[in-house]
Structures are given as structure tokens and as C-alpha cells.
Design a protein that fits this description.
The complex is a heterodimer of chains A (475) and B (297). Helix content of chain A is 47%, strand content 13%. In chain A, helix 9 packs across helix 10 and helix 9 packs across helix 17. Classes of the chains: A alpha/beta (475), B mainly alpha (297).
């Protein structure tokens, strides 16, 4: 027995010593979760270049590639064992949940130290700030808008190549918009497209699509409801937050969806579409118009081989009262709760070498250029990004880079980019994901039951949301 | 226990305990440990999977207050009901048919088992394509030739569960059929010969010889099927995401939603305990009923 114990002790000591040896060069390790997967060789090369430049300037740091694609199933177990990357990219839906479970850390002090805190776009900062503490850095910003499939719109006789440059135009020869600018026009146009495609081409093409699962339905619904004049969460005279899902504007939005589905028959048959579906449907010409964020416009091209010139992007139409908004958010980089201050500082500085910081240094511009060049080599449509950082110098630098690479006809995207500053709006402040989940369910009922009563459904949903979640806000 | 008794105990049993030790450690690590920590977590607030503040029955209260819970509960009962209605008889019938076959028995046996070797997710995706509610969906396209449809299939809240059960039956029936077939082949030919000599018809032979021999297997598979279907999870997750409007969400999928989509491990743990209790109750009731049956007979 003694011999066995002795053997075990020796073995344990060897393992312990071996484990200690990994950190022997004294450099501070930063594991980078947004490192691309090995099969994306062009992206990996680009990251390798960024790593090389960074480590040359900051020899005290070591960038450790840790390719990780965020998913809810894998992140929790990984974070529980403390092995989440120092910095990683997550979805815009996740921060509240990750903070509640203490998997990510506050980076306010480090952001102050680098002088980045006040440079962040205030809307972005608001969405990443919880209880006064800043938890993330936006990779880029997005606003929701209406994607148009110009191939389908041309087949339906709505758009044409009026200026003869080989690309369909969303403004006719007189400069009038050929895309919907009100919800009424959106409904008419969708119905028209569906009918035309059915009658003349014998093809099953929906004019428009409405999402209804994975919380994506509620997310997009809230933007549509704003345009119909609704506010989904309001403060009463005592300052208490109240659910307001049964706002007349929200009811009108749901009525509109119901009419689109059952009277105009202009939506796809499926009642459980999520964000992953829009670029599939648009990319394969099965739908003419869909709501999406400007940061995702490359997806139908990269995933379904759609011609980038057949895409156009305009604001979500205005509602009956003339109101028009674009839900504005961002894909965040977040930081492991196990990361030290030095690691966070290093990870933030590495963002400069990825062209994702507010810095306007040569290296920043060089990295941003490399990013665009790689995207260009992959055949992606290159569009302006919505800047998550403020500052004239910064904007000038971004414009300089953009001018070299933009490869689409901007006339078909300007309606969105020219209006986003004035129509952007951040999502409802409390339990937004839970609210979206409840709204998903309401939309699904309307999409599956021609006799559904939108007013009653929203009233019951409002009650559920208030008692289950909103009461907690006021406690 | 004093020193000498302990020594004697060790001397007598040490070998046995040492042999069992690896299994016990594995059980503690992989089964009993997680089980107990799940039960304990359900009474606390969770931070990740760690226990935060003690909250008593708060998580259970929240689960009961969630309108989706009652929906998931009744849906799970519906899954069980439909699986018994659609899925329970089919393997027995298939086994009887197979056992009566003279030619190509091997082929049919393999053919029936074939869906079992297809990975679960592939089966689900295959059937999801078949049930695509658009005009281009496989079934709708076929029915369109006969001027029927298009049907909403999984989009119809009343059809979602039966169709998911149909998919599960298609995949799972083969394995159960083989179990019944094995049990049928254990029935000695003597009984059939005796029955034939007595002039029994095919139906009478099935009724009086085959079925009585099958009953013990039927009983076992009955409770196993209930326990298995009660834990239906990935089929609705992939085929409908629990929709439309939670019409096909199961209890286990709700646990998944709590744990991962909402990031609330404690609430998920509480529902896990509740599902375990339900299964305990079902199994207990089943054992009671079958034991009573044995005693009276």
C-alpha cells in the first residue's frame, strides 16, 4: 500500500510540475475566441498578421488562438469550468444572461484607462452597460432595415436597370423610389409579387417574411410595432415600469401580420422562421423582402451564392402615423470573468490591431484595410459599417478605407445609410429577450390560426410578461 | 465498530470493495453526484451552475407560475398518448407478421431495422423536409399531383405532436420489433402444433398461444416506452422548436430553454426534479398495478 501511495505522490508531482511549466516564459496570455476556424484560411492568415504585429509592439503579451463559435449549449459548461477565452464574440441577445451568471467581467476601468470609454457611441454604450458598468466592446453596430431581393423584384416588374449600368435600380428614371415606404405599400407590393410569381412563373415566392422563433420574431416585431406608434414598455406616473404589449400600435402590427398571412397570402407557409432563415429564403429567391441587420447583408452572398448586385437595403417602412425607427444594436466582444486587468488591457489593445478600436493610428488603418481586403478576396459585398465609435478623425479614417473597397451600387443602399442616424432606437430596456420569446409565441398563433384575435392574444401576453418579469423590475 | 471488528471486516470484504471501487467511483462521479447536486441546486439561486443564495421553493414556484410549464406538461402527456396509440401496437404487429413470413425474412428484418441505424438528427431533418408546409415541400408536392393540399403539417398545432410521434415511431419501431420477434421465437413449436391438432385457426393461435407468451415483454416495453417518450427532447427541438406557439414543447425542451436560452440553471434543475418525480410516480403506479395483477392471478 505504501508503495502505491508513494507512486501516486510521485506521479502527481510530475503532473503538477508539468502544468506549471506552461507559463514559464512570463508572457501574459490572451486567448482570442473570435479567432477564425482553421478551414477559413484567408481569415486565419489575416489574424496571424494581426497577431504578429501586436506581439512585435507588445512583447509582454502572447496571443493564443482559441477559435470558438458562441452557442448557448457550449458556452455555459465552458465558462463553468473557467476555460472561456479571455475575449470572445457573442450575440447581441446574450450580455444580460452572461452577466447574471458572472461569466463575464466589467471593463469600465480599462476602457477609461485607454481613453476609449467616452469615444463609444452612446447608443452602443447604453446597450452594453448594466448597473452602470460597461461589459463589452461592439465589434460593429447594426440597424434593422428591409432587404430587397432585386432579382425577384425585377421579375415581378417592380424594378429595372433604368440607368443601364447593368445593376437593377431601386429608384426609377425620375428618381422615385420603387421600394415600399409605408406598411400599406409593403403589403400591396408583397401581395403583388406573390401573385405575379405564381401566375406568370408558377413559382412559390413570398413577397415578405415575418420571423417567429428563437426570439427573433419578437425582436423584429418590436421594431415594426414602434413604427405603428407603440412603446412596448412604459413608465407610469410613479416611475414604475409597465409592460405595454397590448398597445394599440402593437395590436395594429399584429393585425397587419395576420392580414399579410391570411388575406393577402404574401408570407411563407412556415410559421417558425428564425434569423437563420432570411438569408436562405432571400439567397434562393424564395422571398422578395425580409427584415435584417445591415451587418448581415453578406450572408445570402457567402452562403447561397447570391449575386451581390441583386441586394438592396432600405429602412423599414413608416407606419400609418408616419413614425419610422430602426432597432439599433451591436455584436459585442465580451471578456472572461477570469481575465485579469492586464489581460483585459491586452485584449483591448489587440482590438486596435484588428481595426476594431476607436484609435486612428497607422496600425489601426492598416488592419482595417486588411480586413476589407480579405472580405473582398472572398467575394463578399463590401458596404459601409455603422461606426460603433464617435470622433471626426475616426470617421474620416473609416471613410478613407471604405472608399477604396465598397463594391456595390450605393444608390441601392443609401436610403438606409442616409437615414439611420435619425431613425435609430435601442431596444426595450427590461427582459427584452423574455419579451421577445413571449411575442414569438403570439406571432406564431397569428400565423397558424386564421381566426386568431390579435388584441386578446397581446392582452394575455402582456399579462404574462408583467407578472412573470416586469414586476421584478419594480421590486 | 471497534478496531478488531474493523480489521476483520476489512479482511473479509476488502477484495470485494476493491473490485467494486472503480464502478462506485464512476457512479458517484457521473450519476449520483450530479443527481444530488441537481436536487440541491433547485433550492438555490444559480450563478452559472454554482449555488448562490438559498431560495427555498422559489424556483419551483416560478416553474409552476410559468404558463409554458402547464403547456409542456400536457404536451408531454400527449406525446405519451400518441406514442402508445401509434407506436405501441405497430412493433407487435410487425413482429407477428415477420414471424409468419416464410420467404425473404432476412430482408424484411433488416429493412425494418434500417431506420434505426440512421443518425437521429438525419431522420429528423429528412422528415422535416417531407413535412415542409410550402407548396414545394415533398409531401405537398406529391399531394399536389392529386390536387390535394397544401397541408400545413407541423405548422398545425393539432398535428405537430402526432407527426413528431410518427417520425419517432418510424425510427424506433424496428428495434422494438426485433425484441418482440426474439421473444416470439422463444415460444416452443409444441404449443402451435398442439393448437393446430385441436383445430385452432391462425387468429386463435395468435390469441391463445402467441399473445400470452408476449405479455411479459409487452408489459416491460410499455413502461419503458412511457419513460422514454416522457423524455422526448431533440425531436421537437429540431422539428418545430416547440412551436407553433409552444404546441409541441416537451418538458425536457423546457428544461433546455430554462438552462441555456434563459441561462437559469436553478429553474432548470427544479423542473428536472419535477420530471423525475413524475416518472417515479408513473413507475411506482405501474409496478403496483402489475404486482396486483400477479397476486390476483
Amino acid at each position: 500500500m505504501k508503495k502505491i501511495m508513494l507512486l501516486l505522490t510521485v506521479l502527481l508531482s510530475i503532473f503538477t510540475l508539468a502544468a506549471c511549466g506552461e507559463e514559464d516564459d512570463g508572457r501574459i496570455e490572451i486567448t482570442v475566441g473570435m479567432w477564425p476556424q482553421p478551414y477559413l484560411s484567408e481569415d486565419v492568415e489575416m489574424f496571424e498578421e494581426w497577431k504578429r504585429l501586436f506581439e512585435a509592439d507588445y512583447p509582454e503579451y502572447e496571443i493564443v488562438p482559441d477559435p470558438y463559435t458562441y452557442s448557448v449549449d457550449t458556452f455555459f459548461p465552458m465558462a463553468q469550468s473557467g476555460t472561456q477565452p479571455t475575449i470572445f464574440q457573442t450575440w447581441f441577445t446574450e450580455p444580460a444572461k452572461l452577466i447574471r451568471n458572472q461569466f463575464v467581467r466589467d471593463i469600465s476601468d480599462e476602457m477609461e484607462e485607454l481613453g476609449w470609454y467616452d469615444k463609444m457611441d452612446p447608443y452602443m454604450k447604453e446597450t452594453l452597460t448594466f448597473d452602470g458598468e460597461l461589459y463589452g466592446v461592439p465589434r460593429d453596430a447594426y440597424g434593422l432595415g428591409l432587404v430587397l431581393n432585386l432579382n425577384v423584384l425585377a421579375e415581378a416588374g417592380i424594378v429595372d436597370d433604368w440607368d443601364g449600368d447593368g445593376v437593377y435600380d431601386i429608384h426609377d428614371a425620375d428618381g422615385n423610389p420603387r421600394y415600399p415606404t409605408t406598411f400599406e405599400e409593403l403589403a400591396d407590393m408583397s401581395e403583388n409579387i406573390t401573385n405575379t410569381m405564381d401566375q406568370y412563373y408558377d413559382r412559390d415566392v413570398a413577397g415578405m417574411m415575418v420571423l417567429s422563433s428563437n426570439n427573433n420574431g419578437g425582436w423584429q416585431f418590436s421594431n415594426m410595432a414602434w413604427n405603428f406608434g407603440a412603446e412596448l414598455q412604459v413608465q407610469d406616473s410613479n416611475g414604475n415600469w409597465q409592460a405595454n404589449l397590448d398597445d394599440p400600435g402593437a395590436v395594429a402590427t399584429l393585425e397587419w401580420i395576420k392580414e399579410m398571412r391570411w388575406e393577402r397570402e404574401a408570407l411563407p407557409e412556415s410559421s417558425s422562421l428564425s434569423y437563420g432563415d432570411w438569408y436562405n429564403y432571400i439567397g434562393t429567391d424564395r422571398v422578395a423582402m425580409a427584415i435584417a441587420g445591415n451587418d448581415a447583408l453578406a450572408l445570402p452572398v457567402t452562403n447561397f451564392g447570391m449575386d451581390k448586385d441583386n441586394l438592396a437595403f432600405v429602412p423599414i417602412p413608416e407606419g400609418p402615423g408616419g413614425e419610422q425607427y430602426s432597432l439599433f444594436g451591436g455584436t459585442p466582444y465580451m471578456f472572461s470573468s477570469h481575465a485579469s486587468d492586464e489581460q483585459v488591457l491586452g485584449a483591448l489593445r489587440f482590438l486596435e490591431y484588428m481595426g476594431r478600436s476607436p484609435e486612428t493610428t497607422d496600425i489601426s488603418e492598416q488592419s482595417m484595410t486588411l480586413g476589407r481586403r480579405t472580405a473582398e478576396a472572398k467575394g463578399m459585398p463590401i458596404l459601409p459599417e455603422l461606426n460603433p465609435w464617435d470622433g471626426e478623425e475616426y470617421e474620416a479614417m473609416v471613410n478613407r478605407v471604405d472608399q477604396q473597397f465598397i463594391n456595390v451600387n450605393m444608390d441601392n443602399f443609401d436610403p438606409f445609410y442616409n437615414s439611420i442616424e435619425s431613425i435609430r432606437k435601442t431596444e426595450a430596456p427590461h427582459y427584452s429577450q423574455e419579451m421577445y420569446e413571449i411575442l414569438d409565441s403570439v406571432i406564431q398563433q397569428v400565423l397558424t390560426n386564421p381566426d386568431a384575435n390579435p388584441s386578446a392574444l397581446l392582452s394575455s401576453a402582456n399579462n404574462t410578461f408583467q407578472t412573470q418579469y416586469m414586476n421584478d423590475v419594480n421590486d | 465498530m471497534n478496531g478488531s471488528k474493523l480489521k476483520r471486516f476489512l479482511k473479509k470484504n476488502l477484495g470485494g470493495w476493491l473490485i467494486m471501487l472503480p464502478s462506485i467511483l464512476l457512479f458517484i462521479f457521473f450519476i449520483w453526484g450530479p443527481l444530488l447536486s441537481n436536487i440541491s441546486l433547485s433550492f438555490f439561486e444559480s450563478i452559472g451552475y454554482d449555488r448562490g443564495a438559498f431560495t427555498g421553493f422559489e424556483n419551483y414556484r416560478e416553474v409552476f407560475a410559468d404558463p409554458v410549464f402547464s403547456k409542456a406538461f400536457f404536451n408531454t402527456l400527449k406525446y405519451t398518448f400518441w406514442s402508445l396509440l401509434l407506436g405501441f401496437g405497430i412493433p407487435i404487429i410487425l413482429a407477428l407478421l415477420l414471424s409468419e413470413l416464410v420467404h425473404a425474412k432476412g430482408f424484411f428484418r433488416s429493412a425494418i431495422y434500417f431506420p434505426n441505424i440512421i443518425p437521429g438528427l438525419a431522420t429528423i431533418l429528412l422528415w422535416t423536409f417531407l413535412f415542409d408546409p410550402s407548396q414545394g415541400g415533398v409531401l405537398n408536392a406529391i399531394l399536389d399531383i392529386f390536387n390535394l393540399g397544401p397541408f400545413p403539417w407541423l405548422n398545425d398545432p393539432d398535428l405537430a405532436i402526432p407527426l413528431i410521434v410518427l417520425t419517432m415511431t418510424w425510427k424506433g419501431a424496428g428495434a422494438t420489433t426485433l425484441i418482440y420477434l426474439a421473444s416470439l421465437q422463444n415460444v416452443s413449436d409444441v404449443y402451435y402444433e398442439a393448437a393446430r391438432i385441436d383445430g385452432a385457426s391462425l387468429w386463435q393461435r395468435i390469441r391463445h398461444v402467441t399473445l400470452p407468451h408476449l405479455i411479459p415483454t409487452v408489459k416491460t416495453l410499455f413502461i419503458l416506452q412511457i419513460i422514454m417518450v416522457f423524455q422526448v427532447f431533440y425531436e421537437p427541438l429540431v422539428m418545430t422548436d416547440g412551436g407553433p406557439n409552444n404546441a409541441s414543447i416537451s418538458l425536457l425542451q423546457l428544461i433546455y430553454r430554462y438552462a441555456f436560452q434563459q441561462g437559469n440553471a436553478a429553474k432548470a434543475a427544479a423542473l428536472g426534479v419535477l420530471v423525475a418525480l413524475m416518472l417515479f410516480a408513473l413507475t411506482f403506479a405501474y409496478l403496483k398495478i402489475t404486482n396486483r395483477g400477479k397476486k390476483t392471478s
